[in-house]
Structures are given as structure tokens and as C-alpha cells.
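Handout, page 2. Input:
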Amino acid sequence: MGAARDKLVDGLYGLGWAGVKKLPEPAAVALGRKIADVAWKRRGKSVLRLESNLARVVPDATPERLRELSHAGMRSYMRYWMESFRLPAMDPTRFGSDVEMKDDHILREALASGRGVVVALPHLANWDLAGAWAIGHIGVPFTTVAERLKPESLYDRFVAYRESLGMEVLPHSGGAAFGTLARRLRAGGLVCLVADRDLSASGVEVDFFGAKARMPAGPALLAQQTGAVLLPATLYYGDSPKMYGRIHPEVEVPGTGTRIEKTAAMTQAVADAFAWGIAEHPEDWHMLQRLWLDDLTDQGERP
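Output:
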């Protein structure tokens, strides 16, 4: 049964990559909205979890407002997928016009310094499009990490897709990824990491919208060990096909404290930047899983 399901899932994603890529852009936009509307009306677990997460981000929202936000959130989420299916076929010159990044001079100056740069992003808008912008518009390739998906063939599709955009993709599992990322940074390279959820034992506890959550220690540790510049970035959608973003100021390594204390302080600073961007555009935060620790323990799960 598991093998059959894996084959079905992989086949559906394969159909998406092959089929949506060939659709005219307006048709792909309309299809994404239609799928999002159907999913939202069904009120499945992912929609309810998104709504629950948004309730923490917008604590004074009425039930009606939360439903509006979750509806917009599902449309934003499906827009991400429609865009991602089409990205490999897009004209790279569009990345400069379709993506506007505020304070991108911070990123350019950090790269010019030769120290290496870690950009940490949350699941806002389309982080793959932001990566394509960095490659196509700034002209800088980068290395990232991808969580292993099941079935394995689906993970292979994701890796091939991102590599087709010019990214170097490392598997999340195993201990080799951190060492490779550190080598890229010491050579002055760019590393981009989605970093707003880490429920593993190595995750760092942060205050996030008034409650405890865990986020990856990797960005802070890489900056400490390699001397790289750590830059949070946040994104949001405008009317299709526009996407906007902001490069936040450097999160500096504290001058005093243990490695654990420095990592905690830096990860909290990254979380604060993420919170700012998410609060500004909550409908573009694609967090359809449990994130806060008390949500996990309420369900009898362990973080």
C-alpha cells in the first residue's frame, strides 16, 4: 500500500511539473486559485492548522478574519506551487523585473566582502523564486539544503528542479551537509537556508509571537564557525507575477558568551526578523504544520 501511494504521489507531482510548465501563465494562475479554493472549502487538517497558526500571528483577528486569512493563505500556497512548476521554463531575465528586493545592497556588499553569506528565510511567498533571483539577477550561485522526501523519487525531482535553476542542493540527513556548507562559506560563497521550523533535538528555542518555538541552529553556527555574514530575508507577494522582499541587517555574532548562548541570541534575532515579515504579510506564510511547542505537547507529541 505504501509503495503504491508513493508511486501515486510521485506521479501527480511529475504531472504537475510536466503539465503546468506548459500552461499559459494566466491559466496556471487560475488553476492554482481553483485548487486552493477547493482545498480551503474542504477544511482539511492542513487548512485548520494554517488557521490555528495564523491565530497566533494575528491574535485579535475575528473568526471571520481568520477564515479570510486562511483562504488567502491557501491561494498564496498554491501560487507558490504553480510558480515553482513553471520556474525552470521561465525567461531568467524576468527575475529582475518580477522580483523586487528592498535593501539588496546589504546582500551585495556582504558578498563583495568575501566573508561568505548565509541568508536565512522563512516559508514566506516563494523562496525558490528568491533563489532564482539571486542567481539570475545578482549572478551568484548558492548552496542550499533539502529535506529528504518520500518517495525518494519525489525528492530526486525536487533536487533536479532546484539544480536546473542553478542551485547546489545537499540532503538534510547525514552529517556531511554542514561541512560542505562551511567550505562554501569559507570560499566566499552564498548559502540560503529556510529556517523557521526545526523540531529536532538540535533546534533552538525562541520566543515567537508570544510562545516558544524551535528554529534551526545551523545559520547561527555557520556564521560563528566561518565568519560568514548572517542575513535574514523576508518575502511577500504582490499581484501576479510580482514578488517583493527585504534583506534585513546582519545578525552579528555576540562579543561575549558561550557558543550555546551566542547561538541562542543569534537565532532569536533571526526569529524576530521573520516575525516582522510574517506579521506584515501573514497570508503569505506557508506554515501548514505544527510549529509552537505547546501545540505539539497538546497533541501528546514530543518536539
